[in-house]
Each structure stands twice: as structure tokens, then as C-alpha cells.
Amino acid sequence: MNKQHSAASVSVIVPAMNEAENLPHVFATLPEWIDEVILVDGNSTDDTVAVARKLRPDLRVVVQTRRGKGNALIEGFQAATGDIIVMIDADGSTDGREIRGFVDALLAGADFAKGSRYAPGGGSDDLSPWRSLGNKALTGLTNLLYGTRYTDLCYGYNAFWAHHLDALNLDCDGFEIETLMNVRAAKAGLLISEVPSHERSRIHGTSNLNAVRDGWRVLRTILRERTGREDVPAHTQVALAK
Fold first, then answer.
1. Would the pLDDT of 153 be above 60?
2. Could you tell me which residue ranges the Glycosyltransferase 2-like domain spans (predicted)?
């Protein structure tokens, strides 16, 4: 895919806090045809913003007003101007070169393109056996409660058409943001396509993710959405992008 092949503009949202060492690698993987890159800075104490602006002079910077990955993404989504919104991580774990597959899935008819480390062609260098087990259990519970056929619930590499933001109606602050997006996309009856993705290990620094604490937040999100909102439409399907 290149700019001649699509009239759809693409915004990439990169939430970051103290990721100055990782950004040169992350930005180097972004395709040239992307229209907009938005860095959502979580009040970094290092040179994250300065490094990002040097790497990409056309960068847009949003300074986060609250805390948490979920809030950072929501603020980035609200600032985006592209037809398609892509969310990636700033730690080097998500490969920007895979954006082509997500955008192609949307151009082929999907409303929401969902990254999966477990789909054929995907994988992870970072998932521990404990985290993998927890993710599979939460994925299975979601599929049971919502009639979905997800293979990977807790993964932060996703893309969607910007006009579906209202349907997603995102309103959480933490790492449970990916689960909330997946559940509400299904409940809204969006056509969801899973895209194989290979997760790499963080390059520098340490993650703020806590498997137990954030796992409980994900579980509460799954159960709360099941009891507090309308049921998932019967026609909701999850397809695997080719």
C-alpha cells in the first residue's frame, strides 16, 4: 500500500513516558506514507519530547492531562485528524512496519483491526508463561461472554476507522484500555479483523505493567461491561486478516 492506492489518511498515536532511548528505533520503523504521528507525553522527566521532535519535525505533541496508558491513548485519539487511527507502543515492542497489515485490513472492509500474537504469523519475545496463561484465560472468558472469537485480548497494537470513536466511547485510564476497546467494538457490532503481529521485547527501561494488578483491572472491565451494557449483537464476527 502507498499513498497512490488509498485516499484514507493515517494517524499514528504513540503514548510515551520517559522513552527517549527507545524512540529512535520506534520512529525508524514507521512507514513514510503515514500522514500524522502524535506523541502523547505523560509528563516525561527525560528528553522524550525533544528526541521525538528531532526525529520527526512534523510531529504533533499532546501533553497528557491525567495519568495512565488508557488516558494517554484517549487524548491522542481525540487529537487525531486521520481517517484511520493506529496505536503503537513507544518501548520498541511493536513494529511500525506492521502498520501496513492493519491498514490493509481496514481498507479491505474491517471496522477494527486487532493485533494478535497468537494468530498464525504472530508471536512474542516478551510474554512470560504466566502472562500468556492469564491472557488466554481472559481471552476465553471474553469469547464466552460476548460471543467473540478473539485469539489475543490483551495486546496494544490496534487500528480502526476514526469515525468509530463514538461507538467505542472509551472512558478508562489504565492498561485495561485494550480490553475495553475489544469488548466495545464487539458490542457495537463492528467488523473486527485480527492481524498477526510479532511482539518484541522492550529495548530500554522497565515496563509499568503489573501482571496481577492489571489483570484484575482487565477482569473487572470484562465483567462490568457484560452486566452494565447491552449484549453483543448476534452477527459479530472476528476474521483473520490474510
1. yes
2. 11-129
